[in-house]
């Protein structure tokens, strides 16, 4: 893909979706786009821009394919154990606990957190969880809270009983209403976070920065710092790090689990 046509595509995509692909790792995006184009028998970007105008129904599928959608319930369980023991259990009774999951995909991380909050905080603490994603199809699926047997395979029998209700005819499972009622899902991306300052106590942004050009990591983490209250926590993925330029506002709580505390810089 030549640079001029790629720049034209970036601008075209942003006009139609509001999503700026220029922030994301070019090699990853281009490989995924080329795979999607092969599926549609589209030879080049110029043809794609011409043909998608006549196929607006392609946009949701294309957005889903170009954005990250890899998740599972209790992914990297030791992180959840650490949060349960060191963040949730010490939480003061009667104080609202607000949690955000950025890049929430189809909601598995959100509902894992919801079960964790139910088990740990009970009725002593009011809590809310919000999941954010760029893909509207993901958000619709997350709000429905319906998953296949394969998607729930890593859950224990006790977790299944606490989280899920079997659907008729063995077609899958749905998250229990008492958990769905405590969560919300909103559309947004890391470069335009739709949240008020100091509106979160804990933010999970795991395995998202790895798809963003490194030069923008500090910008994103500075933005997250505005929505996390001082003293609040941020959790990154296992291969993600706090850039040196923002280490003054994010100090490590656990380098093993990649948990950081927001301090005033």
List keywords for this structure.
single chain; 265 residues; alpha/beta; Rossmann fold; 2 domains; three-stranded antiparallel beta sheet; 10 helices; 19% strand
Q: Which residues sit in consecutive blocks of at least 5 with pLDDT less than 50?
A: none
The CATH topology of the largest domain comes to Rossmann fold
Our estimate of the beta-strand percent is: 15-25%
Order of strands in the sheet with the most strands?
6-2-1-7-8-10-9
The end-to-end distance, rounded to whole angstroms, is 42 Å
Mean pLDDT: 92
Helix count from the secondary structure assignment: 10
Shape: globular
Would you write up a description of this structure?
The chain is of the alpha/beta class and 265 residues long. The protein folds into two domains: 64 residues, no CATH class; 186 residues, 3-Layer(aba) Sandwich (Rossmann fold). The chain is 39% helix and 19% strand. The chain is built from ten helices and ten strands. The strands form two sheets. A seven-stranded mixed sheet has the order 6-2-1-7-8-10-9. Strands 3-5-4 form a three-stranded antiparallel sheet. The mean pLDDT is 92.
């Amino acid at each position: 893909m030549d640079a001029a046509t790629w720049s034209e595509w970036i601008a075209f995509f942003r006009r139609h979706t509001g999503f700026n692909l220029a922030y994301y790792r070019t090699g990853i995006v281009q490989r995924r786009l080329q795979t999607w184009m092969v599926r549609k028998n589209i030879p080049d970007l110029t043809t794609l821009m011409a043909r998608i105008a006549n196929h607006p129904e392609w946009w949701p599928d294309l957005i889903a394919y170009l954005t990250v959608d890899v998740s599972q319930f209790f992914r990297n369980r030791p992180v959840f154990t650490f949060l349960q023991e060191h963040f949730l259990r010490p939480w003061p009774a009667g104080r609202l606990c607000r949690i955000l999951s950025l890049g929430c995909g189809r909601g598995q991380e959100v509902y894992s957190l919801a079960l964790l909050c139910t088990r740990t905080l009970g009725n002593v603490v009011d809590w809310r969880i919000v999941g954010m994603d760029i893909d509207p199809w993901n958000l619709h699926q997350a709000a429905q809270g319906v998953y296949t047997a394969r998607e729930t395979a890593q859950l224990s029998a006790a977790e299944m009983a606490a989280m899920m209700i079997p659907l008729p005819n063995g077609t899958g499972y749905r998250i229990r209403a008492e958990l769905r009622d405590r969560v919300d899902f909103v559309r947004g991306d890391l470069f335009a976070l739709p949240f008020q300052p100091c509106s979160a106590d804990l933010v999970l942004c795991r395995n998202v920065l790895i798809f963003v050009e490194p030069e923008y990591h500090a910008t994103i983490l500075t933005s997250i710092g505005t929505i996390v209250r001082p003293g609040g926590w941020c959790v990154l993925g296992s291969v993600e790090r706090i850039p040196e330029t923002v280490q003054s506002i994010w100090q490590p709580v656990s380098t093993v689990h990649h948990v950081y505390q927001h301090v005033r810089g």
